[in-house]
Amino acid sequence: MKHSTIQSTSLVALLSSLTGLATAQDYTSSEPFTLQLSSSYSDVDGSFLGACHAGAAIEELCVTGTDGTPAEYNTFALNTSSADASDSDLIYDTGILVWTLPASNINVSEGLIFPANLATNVVAPLFEPGSNGADVVGFDDDNLLFIYSNYVDDKNFTAGVYPAPVEPYPLYQWYACYTYYGAYYYQTLAWVTGGEPNNPTCEAVNVTRIFI
Ligand SMILES: *[C@@H]1O[C@H](CO)[C@@H](O)[C@H](O)[C@H]1NC(C)=O
Ligand SMILES: *[C@@H]1O[C@H](CO)[C@@H](O)[C@H](O)[C@H]1NC(C)=O
Ligand SMILES: *[C@@H]1O[C@H](CO)[C@@H](O)[C@H](O)[C@H]1NC(C)=O
Ligand SMILES: *[C@@H]1O[C@H](CO)[C@@H](O)[C@H](O)[C@H]1NC(C)=O
Predict the structure, then answer these.
(1) Which structural domains are found in the chain, ordered by start?
(2) Cβ-count burial of 84 within 10 angstroms (0-12 exposed, 13-18 middle, 19+ buried)?
(3) Candidates 152, 156, 166: which one to mutate for ligand 3, based on the most atoms within 8 Å of Cβ?
(4) Spatial CB neighbours of 68, under 8 Å, sequence gap ≥ 6
(5) Using CA positions, which residue lies closest to atom 7 of ligand 3?
(6) What is the DSSP string of 160-203?
(7) Nearest to 101 by CA among 93, 91, 111
C-alpha cells in the first residue's frame, strides 16, 4: 500500500494554497472511523478500505485486507456542514468523506470526489485536496455508506408527464473493482451509476463505518 509522504516543497506550497481555498465552507468533522467491506464475495468480505496513492495528492480507496488496525491511511471522517444539515427532509446526516494526507510540513484535508466518466458506469472515487467538487455521501442507521437518490427519480418517468418529486432514499451501489486511474491499477471502491457494472472485475459490496 502506497501512501507516501510528499516531499516536494513546491507541491506543498500548491497544497497550502488549495487548502486555503477550501475554507469557504464551514465543516464539522465527525469522530474518526475505519471503513469495512461486507460482501458475498469472500475475497473482499471483511476487508478494510485505505487511501492509496494515485497521483500527486490524489488517492483512491483501495481494498487493503482484513487488518483494520486504525492507522493514518485507513482512518476517515465525515465532514458535515450546516448547508447539508439544513435539509431537514433527509433522515440521515450527509456530508463529505474526508481523509488527511500527511505531507512534509502540513496535514492536508481532502474530500472524496466521484469523477463521472462518460465511457463507463463504474466510478472510482478519489480524494483531492480541499472540498471543491467533493460529493455528498451519508451513513444510515446501520452505519452503511450510501448516496441519496435525486428529488425526481428518472426510473419512474413517463414520457411527456412532468415528474412528481419523490423523497430521496439511500442508494447502495458500491462495488470493489480493479480500476484504472492515471496509470495506477488497483482494487478499489467504486460506485456503479446504474445497471450491471461495465467492468467484469466488480464485486458488489457494502461499506460499514466503524468508529475507532
Ligand atoms: C498532522 O497530524 C498528526 C496526527 O494528528 C499530528 O501528529 C502532526 O503533528 C500533524 N502535523 C502537522 C504538520 O500539523
Ligand atoms: C473537514 O472539517 C475540518 C474541521 O472543520 C476542516 O479542518 C477540514 O478542512 C475539512 N476538510 C475538507 C476537505 O473540507
Ligand atoms: C414509482 O412509481 C410507482 C407507481 O406510481 C410508485 O408506487 C413508486 O413509489 C414510485 N417510486 C419512486 C421511487 O418514486
Ligand atoms: C447493501 O445494503 C443495502 C441496505 O441494507 C442492501 O439493500 C443491499 O442488498 C446490500 N448490498 C450488498 C452487496 O450487500
Answers:
(1) 23-211 (2.80.10)
(2) middle
(3) 156
(4) 34, 36, 48, 74, 210
(5) 156
(6) TBPPPP----EE--EEEEEEEETTEEEEEEEEE-SSS-SSTT-E
(7) 111
What tens digit of pLDDT does each residue of 80-99 get?
A: 987 665 455 678 989 999 99
Q: 22-59, pLDDT tens digit by residue?
A: 445 789 999 999 999 999 999 999 999 999 999 999 99
Closest C-alpha to 102, from 4, 186, 175 = 4
Q: Which amino acid is at 121?
A: N
Whether the model clears a pTM of 0.85, i.e. scores above it, the answer is yes
Q: Which DSSP symbol is given to 48?
A: B
Which grid cell is 43? 475475497
Task: Answer yes or no: is the C-beta of 14 below 6 A from any ligand 4 atom.
Answer: no
| Secondary structure (3-state) at 19 | helix
